[in-house]
Write a structure and sequence with these properties.
- 2 copies of one chain form a homodimer.
- A 5-stranded parallel beta sheet of chain A has the order 3-2-1-4-5. A 3-stranded mixed beta sheet of chain A has the order 6-7-8, with helices on one face.
- By secondary structure, chain A is α/β, with parallel strands linked by helices.
- In chain A, strand 4, helix 4 and strand 5 form a beta-alpha-beta unit.
- The two termini of chain A are 38 Å apart.
- In chain A, helix 4 runs parallel beside helix 5.
- Chain A is built from 12 helices and 8 strands.
Chain lengths: 292, 292
């Protein structure tokens, strides 16, 4: 198996390390290209990969599996290139996969281009970036969503599953639209909410002393820190997730807005809020978390 | 100084431990009563307090400072008792304080009863409860909000500040309404939001596979856990906070709802969301956190 990485940061670097360490992959060869070339150079230097390629064309030559490891917009451009200029270099039976966080746009593009493609989304919490931060065990026991496309061949999904298992991940097959709507709820909405909470509470410069952040900040404790930690993330990455999954995220946001309206109705009751009803709601929420 | 605790769990137990360890308080005596008597018995057994009192009347006899360490509704009842049946036992110059999480209701009641009262709110993240979980250093470097009332005498606030400093806390004086509106934003709204996120995303039992929690739960990662951790808290305590601070919380919730509407407008733009605008919003949110 010959693998070509286009884009080579934390995720691709962690995959390459896991493959290099896998006993089943002793005959695999890996090439990598990235816009800066920094990650591939490091990885070739420490013998994680076999070739730091100077261009995408050099990286994909002879590859059985091309792994796009870039933000969604860059993946779309790379797909266009693979179907156009790079089409002469790409092996006829090469399979394309990726590690991007939203899937519907990529599946649509691959199908439109007739590109042999199976989408992937290895899910691991990441607070750092770049090849140097990668770890061979980053995906151990983590889900790796596998998303089929119409242009994939029989057995292609299994090839990506094999890669996922080699990294210690648990492959989970989902339709692209289901994946995007699920991650909108468990990943993108939490990010939006953390930012919105900051905007609503910490973003004020007001003559109202109770909304003066210099008064409030010293009183913020662990609950505040938990609920705003995601707002410290990379703004460009967050914007990419939200913009490329906006319809699913807006759907989830509407659901949440309806829930918040029902909370406000409870708080605004003419005869005062009912502590028993609130306690029941909080107890039910905790129970649905514990059930998972 | 003679201190009487009415209610004696994690908070009061931690204060008692800190006082016992304080070099300035070698001549202080402490008595405690709680409904179950369990905490006071343990604290008398390990010589943290001088007396495990069998009743509130026994606890407050001769006390200079009566500290109410109970949820807000129980504090209100204790205040009523101090102004009525217990009035004969309470020293004429005894000062009443408390450690409850909302303050306006208590100040109003104290003023209505003519009770000599200065409110307090030591703020520390607490995931456990009961005297046994207490620690002498629980409040070190934490804020301890001090809230005056009309019925307090000159110098009373300073007496509570002395207690706060003895526990290593940083006393911060605020009006009751300002305190309640600030904690509505940094503490109670985050709690409501964690529960609402769970209700909106994890509470579904739906024929829509993308809203089936058994499908979504395996894909939930660290961001989801951060944003829902508060929903695991004690439902009765959470309901007490929200119900006794409902007006301030509803105000903050309306602010948040307006922010969420503006996010949805961005996601729902006819020509698609603008990644640059989203990135700018996320960057500004992160910056306002970093500034604090």
């Amino acid at each position: 198996m010959r693998v070509a990485f286009l884009g080579f940061g934390l995720i691709a670097g962690s995959i390459a390390r896991a493959v290099r360490a896998a006993p089943d992959a002793v005959d695999w060869t890996m090439a990598a290209w990235s816009p800066s070339g920094a990650g591939p150079a490091l990885a070739a230097g420490d013998d994680t990969i076999d070739l730091a390629a100077a261009s995408p064309a050099i990286a994909i030559r002879g590859a059985d599996l091309v792994l796009l490891a870039a933000p969604v917009p860059a993946c779309l451009t790379l797909m266009d290139d693979l179907a156009a200029d790079l089409g002469d270099v790409l092996e006829a039976d090469a399979l394309v996969t990726d590690v991007a966080s939203t899937k519907a746009m990529l599946v649509q593009r691959a199908d439109a281009l007739g590109l042999r493609y199976v989408g992937g989304h290895p899910m691991a919490g990441m607070e750092s970036s770049g090849y140097a931060a990668g770890r061979a065990d980053l995906f151990v026991d983590r889900p790796w969503v596998i998303v089929p496309s119409r242009s994939a061949w029989p057995g292609d999904a299994e090839r990506v599953q094999t890669l996922a298992r080699m990294c210690g991940a648990r492959p989970i097959q989902l339709e692209a639209s289901v994946h995007d709507r699920v991650v909108a709820g468990v990943s993108h909405l939490p990010l939006l909410l953390a930012a919105a909470l900051v905007e609503a509470v910490a973003g004020r410069d007001s003559s109202d002393v109770a909304k003066d952040w210099s008064v409030a900040a010293p009183l913020a404790a662990s609950g505040w820190r938990d609920m705003t930690r995601l707002a410290h993330g990379d703004p460009a990455m967050g914007a990419g997730l939200m913009a490329t999954n906006s319809a699913a995220l807006a759907e989830r946001l509407r659901d949440l807005e309806a829930v918040l309206r029902s909370w406000r109705s409870e708080l605004d009751r003419a005869d005062g809020p009912d502590p028993v009803a609130i306690e029941e709601r909080l107890r039910a929420a905790a129970a649905s978390l514990d059930a998972s």
